[in-house]
Design brief:
heterodimer, A: 147 residues, mainly beta, OB fold (Dihydrolipoamide Acetyltransferase, E2P), five-stranded mixed sheet, 1 helix, 10 strands, B: 557 residues, alpha+beta, 6 strands, 77% helix
Chain lengths: 147, 557
């Protein structure tokens, strides 16, 4: 953890901070469509563990993924206000609407790419320090590339 | 071998010249008759010559001659015959006299057996008379022996009984003393019980009074507890109402929390929309952020209120629990107070009963004390009577002792008779003497004597002493000595027995004799010795067989 910046200094945020298990993740606001209370899902038999099931959003079926499993977060406290964050996943030319099940939607924050450390081209682009916590910055375009 | 003893004859001897003198006397009688007839004839002839007739002289001569002739042929031979038989008759009468003297001598010595044997050669009537007298005397002596044994035995029993009674009486006296002491102790204890009962009655009366006060106090306590119970129930009702209100507040807080959460999500979505609007939405994003902060503050306030309300609700629940516990405790106190009131009532009644019973016990114990004093006085009188009875029994025991001694003396006197009876010790010892006389030597004699001694329970020991005073054999009754031999044969042989009174008496009289009672060297008990002469095959005295008789064993037969 080399470079943590003070998130309080960023008044206009470009990322949405959410809690998933024991991690705090930053979602780029350009890819976030809506934050709603946790949607009821219909589980799909034989699906991967990350896929909680299908939910209805705006009259359309939408897959809902378990964000904590996606970032392989350790178990956290029992969620008091679980939410589903509706995002655009995948590359810009083939993006699709996906629901991410998170424990709570926290606040907006600015994340500068120069302050990020780590990252390896996967779902997690890198890590920044905000408010004394390690925040994992996600690349939602990479979500569509996931096998 | 004959057991006939030498019989004293009284110094009488047979006259050997008496028949010759009797024969001369018969001849002299014939000559005197003839001479007297001739002298009478001559005197008559001389008288006739002086003038009287002559025929009376011839008649006198004729009858005188006839008388002399008759005497010569009839009287003289008879006298001659008598003179010839006189020595034989004299010898026979001398023998009879000797037998009579012998029988009288045996009778005088108490030997009725030999006295009876001596009378067998007497003429029939005399023999019958003597036999009858001997049998009567023998029966009398046997009766005396038997009765004396019974007297001694009875005296022994009386003595034993008196001793037992005296011992029992002594124990009884001791027991009476102990009972008296126990009764005195009982009287003292009864007095203490009476005092204690009186004190207990007083205490019970005080307890009864205290019970009344306690009962009133407990009733007041019950009333107070009832009031407390009512107050607690009122507090509990109010706490329940507060709990109900708290739940309503919780519902309001939940509603506020939900609105705040919705507001928070709404502000986030507004910020998302503002970001999507680009530069035009920047100012809106500020508003959205402010809304989000308000929502967050609202949530924080709700959390604070919820925290305070939790504490308040916790206090209310604690109050409810405390009031419930207090109510339960008040109920328990109430029940206990009622039970205590009932117990105090029972205690008060029990104290009253105890007081009455204690007074009764005190009165009864006083009566018991008086009765105990009377019993103690009676027991003291009984003790004196028992002590006098003990003294009397001791006197009786002494009298029985003297009676026993007297019976023993009578028995010994009766045993001085030699009877043909199994209870006659002289007869027994003489029979033993006859048996050892037939023994071939000292060894056989000891075997015979030992077998005889072991068969008779009252014989302590028997020994044969020869004329030199040497103890040839000595046999112990192992049943009496228990196999011990306190005075061994070698020890006995160290004494010169010829100087012992019993030996000297037997040797002098050649007759069985008894000694006075003396203390036995074997076991310390009273005994006496019966000695009998022992003769050889020629009838000569060769020693004395002595048999020691245990008096206790003898009187028990």
């Amino acid at each position: 953890m080399e470079a943590f910046t003070d998130a309080k200094a960023w008044k206009a945020g470009n990322h949405l901070l959410v809690r998933a298990g024991g991690y705090v993740c930053a979602l780029p606001l350009g890819s976030v469509r809506r934050v709603v209370r946790a949607l009821p899902v219909h589980a799909l038999p034989g699906a991967r563990a990350e896929l909680r099931g299908l939910a209805e959003f705006a009259g359309e079926p939408m897959p809902v993924l378990d964000l904590a499993r996606l970032v392989q977060a350790p178990p956290g406290a029992l969620p008091a206000q679980p939410v589903t964050v509706v995002v655009w996943a995948g590359p810009p030319d083939a993006r699709s609407m996906v629901g991410l099940a998170a424990d709570a939607a926290l606040e907006m924050a600015d994340v500068s790419p120069g302050t990020m450390v780590g990252g390896g081209g996967g779902l997690v682009r890198g890590e920044v320090g905000i408010g004394g916590e390690v925040v994992r910055v996600l690349d939602l375009e990479a979500l569509g590339r996931e096998p | 071998m004959s057991r006939d003893r030498r019989i004293p004859t009284g110094g009488r001897s047979r006259p050997s010249a008496a028949p010759q003198r009797d024969s001369d006397s018969a001849m002299m009688g014939l000559l005197l008759v003839t001479g007297s007839v001739l002298a009478g004839f001559l005197l008559l002839s001389a008288a006739v010559g002086t003038g009287g007739p002559r025929w009376p002289s011839f008649v006198f001569l004729f009858f005188g001659g006839a008388a002399a002739t008759a005497y010569g042929f009839r009287v003289y031979p008879y006298f001659r015959k008598l003179e010839r038989r006189l020595p034989e008759e004299s010898e026979r009468w001398l023998k009879l006299e000797n037998r009579l003297i012998g029988a009288a001598s045996h009778l005088g010595a108490g030997d009725l057996v030999r006295a009876s044997e001596q009378t067998r050669g007497l003429p029939e009537r005399l023999a019958r008379m003597a036999e009858g007298a001997s049998e009567s005397l023998s029966g009398l002596a046997r009766e005396i022996q038997d009765r004396s044994i019974e007297v001694a035995s009875a005296a022994d029993s009386v003595n034993q009984t008196a001793s037992d009674l005296a011992a029992g009486s002594s124990e009884q006296a001791a027991s009476v003393v102990q009972i008296t002491a126990a009764m005195e102790e009982l009287a003292r204890t009864a007095a203490q019980i009476a005092d204690n009962a009186a004190r207990q009655a007083s205490l019970a009366a005080r307890a009864e009074t205290s019970g009344d006060a306690g009962s009133a106090a407990v009733h007041e306590a019950v009333a107070g507890v009832e009031e407390v119970q009512k107050r607690i129930q009122a507090i509990s009702s109010r706490a329940d109402a507060l709990g109900t209100r708290s739940k309503e507040i919780y519902r309001v807080l939940d509603l506020i929390t939900e609105i705040a959460q919705e507001t928070h999500i709404l502000s986030l979505n507004a910020a998302i929309e503002a970001f999507a609007a680009g530069a035009e939405g920047r100012r809106f994003s500020v508003v959205a952020e402010e809304v989000r902060r308000l929502a967050q503050r609202a949530q924080e306030s709700v959390a604070s209120v919820r925290h305070l309300l939790d504490e308040f609700a916790g206090s209310i629940r604690a109050t409810i629990v405390a009031t419930e516990e207090g109510s339960k405790e008040a109920n328990r106190v109430f029940e206990r107070s009622r039970a205590a009131a009932a117990a105090i009532g029972d205690l008060r009644r029990a104290s009253g009963d105890t007081s009455r019973v204690a007074r009764q016990i005190s009165m009864a114990t006083h009566q018991q004390n008086a009765a105990s004093d009377e019993v103690v006085m009676t027991l003291r009188e009984v003790s004196q009577v028992v002590q006098r009875m003990t003294g009397g029994l001791k006197d009786l025991s002494g009298t029985a002792d003297r009676l026993n001694s007297l019976g023993l003396n009578i028995q010994l006197l009766a045993q001085s008779f030699h009877l043909a009876s199994p209870r006659s010790l002289k007869h027994l010892v003489e029979d033993w003497a006859k048996q050892i006389e037939r023994a071939a030597g000292a060894g056989e004699m000891e075997g015979v004597l030992d077998s005889l001694v072991q068969r008779v329970a009252f014989v302590e020991m028997a020994y044969f002493v020869d004329t030199s005073g040497y103890t040839v054999t000595l046999c112990y009754n192992r049943a009496i000595t228990g196999g011990r031999q306190l005075l061994g044969a070698s020890g006995a042989r160290e004494f010169d027995m010829t100087q012992r009174p019993w030996y000297r008496a037997v040797a002098r009289e050649q007759r069985t004799a008894l000694t006075p009672p003396y203390e036995s060297l074997q076991n310390g008990e009273t005994c006496f010795t019966v000695g009998a002469p022992v003769l050889n095959r020629e009838g000569s005295f060769i020693g004395v067989l002595a048999v020691d008789i245990n008096v206790n064993g003898w009187t028990r037969i």
